[in-house]
Design a protein that fits this description.
Elements (H helix, E strand, L loop, with lengths): L18 H8 L4 H24 L17 E3 L10 E13 L2 E12 L5 E3 L12 H12 L4 H12 L5 H14 L14 E20 L5 E19 L4 E10 L4 H13 L10 E4 L5 H4 L9 E3 L9 H7 L3 E2 L1
Parallel strand pairs: 5-8, 8-9
Antiparallel strand pairs: 1-4, 2-3, 5-6, 6-7, 9-10
Helix pairs in contact: 1-2
Length: about 325
């Protein structure tokens, strides 16, 4: 297929742009141009990454004296030297997004020995088949208390295609890998109000045991385990804006878990000196005791409406809280 090369600078993207930056750029455009423009934005980011890896213009000769090793390797000779690598066209890959199925042209790199060079692109993770916009929607809906089944039905109705629960669950499991998903870009502006809540979920974990099925195959033995996702949402009441600032996966809502989470929020810049005025929570679990160990939080309020997070600025304005 013909390759598409659009400099990221023309799309206001820098080399090595994060997936969130890429999908935020795509979201600026209306649905009519979404399907056409989205692949170009992602392709441009991928091209910039390959250019940054090789550090030479198209058709430029490789320098035999270049002894720089890069974060990629040949699957045949295992070389990591940049001088051994060269451009090798593109391969086609499909990605499901909120705008439909996108066909991408993923850049390939070849080694001088003829082997394939494995490149881990930041803009497009290996084996990923759904776009960052879908992942962001799953994250937001689950943080609002929606079940995976409800999210699945909503997305399937919108996309008019099937979407497995495992695929959606993988997006949630990615929270565990992040451990504490502090959004550094968002924390550059401190919200005046932060809503804290714990969302309980059940997922299957590997017991490291195996059992034989009826066909003689060894299968992993899994068990259900309950965990809680401690979530912090930033609210800007005057602008009627809200966003998920951070999350932390913990075994429970005891004091130790909340203390660790509040400490991370403080280190990330959520302080009265930066504009923080109020914490809102339902008062359950160990948050009452934990908040005293976080010296940055000087005002606390309980509110029975924390489940309605998008409307919490209404609680702030009406004063229907008991601050102490």
């Amino acid at each position: 297929m013909p390759s598409i090369h659009i400099p990221a600078s023309t799309l206001q993207l820098s080399a090595g742009a994060s997936p969130k930056e890429i999908w935020s750029t795509i979201a600026q455009y209306n649905l009519n141009t979404y399907r056409q423009l989205a692949p170009q934005v992602i392709n441009a980011a991928l091209e910039e990454e390959r250019d940054a890896l090789l550090q030479r213009a198209r058709y430029a000769r490789r320098e035999s004296s270049d002894a720089q090793q890069v974060a990629a390797h040949c699957n045949r000779c295992h070389s990591q030297y940049r001088r051994d690598f060269r451009r090798d066209g593109h391969y086609s890959r499909e990605l499901l997004s909120l705008g439909g199925v996108l066909t991408l042209a993923v850049p390939e790199v070849e080694c001088g020995c003829g082997g394939y060079v494995a490149v881990n692109y930041r803009a497009l993770a290996k084996w990923r088949r759904i776009g960052g916009d879908i992942g962001e929607k799953v994250r937001q809906r689950v943080s609002q208390g929606a079940s995976l089944r409800e999210v699945q039905e909503e997305l399937e109705e919108q996309l008019q295609t099937g979407l497995g629960l495992k695929t959606l669950n993988d997006e949630i499991m990615a929270l565990e890998q992040a451990a504490s998903g502090l959004d550094k870009a968002q924390l550059e502006r401190c919200p005046p109000v932060v809503v804290l809540d714990g969302l309980w979920a059940t997922w299957m974990v590997d017991t490291r045991r195996r059992k034989q099925d009826k066909q003689g195959r060894l299968r992993k033995v899994k068990k259900a385990q309950k965990v809680v996702v401690l979530v912090a949402l930033g609210l800007w009441p005057e602008q009627e804006q809200w966003d998920i600032l951070a999350w932390y996966i913990a075994p429970g809502e005891e004091e130790a878990s909340w203390s660790k989470f509040l400490t991370q929020l403080e280190e990330a810049g959520l302080k009265p000196a930066r504009g923080l005025k109020l914490l809102i929570a339902d008062g359950a679990g160990g948050i009452e005791a934990a908040r005293h160990s976080a010296v940055c939080f000087t005002r606390f309020a309980t509110c029975s409406r924390t489940s309605a997070v998008p409307r919490a600025w209404g609680v702030w304005r009406s004063g229907s809280i008991s601050a102490r």
